[in-house]
Amino acid sequence: MEVLCKIRDIYRAIAEFEAQFEQAYGLSLNEGMLLCTLLSRGKLSSSEALGLSASNASKVIRSVEGKELIVRQVGREDKRQMYFVPTPAGKELIGRIKAAHFDLPPLLAEAVGRGC
User: Minimal CA–CA distance to 34: which of 107, 86, 81?
Assistant: First the structure.
């Protein structure tokens, strides 16, 4: 039972962080993670996106695309393959997020290795 209570506390801490993140940047946590993945990879295919189900990944991609933070590119070798890359506005937002200091709830700070 102790494990379930700890998981509940982690879930609440993530929800609290997501609310603050969304207020600051206008992005859900999944949308932010998509941009973070693009920061490290430069481009990404929908099959690589976030480890979400295809349906959820598609929704996140469409949402970030609708905010004009990413654009689609057709694959060079395989024209059936679709890649996503950040727009200039997306790159600027990624830079702002990367430079930001987040006040994480203590439980999350501990989990990601940043002491309070």
Answer: 86
Helices 29-41, 2-25: crossing angle, 10 deg rounding: 80
Q: Is the pLDDT of residue 103 over 70?
A: yes
Residues 41, 71, 84, 25: is their CA dihedral positive or negative? positive
Q: What pLDDT score does 87 carry? A: 92
Round to whole Å and give the CA distance between 63 and 22. Answer: 13
Nearest Cα neighbor of 94 from 31, 7, 14, 46 is 31
- Distance separating alpha carbons of residues 98 and 116, to the nearest angstrom: 19
pLDDT tens-digit series, residues 63-80: 999 999 999 888 777 777
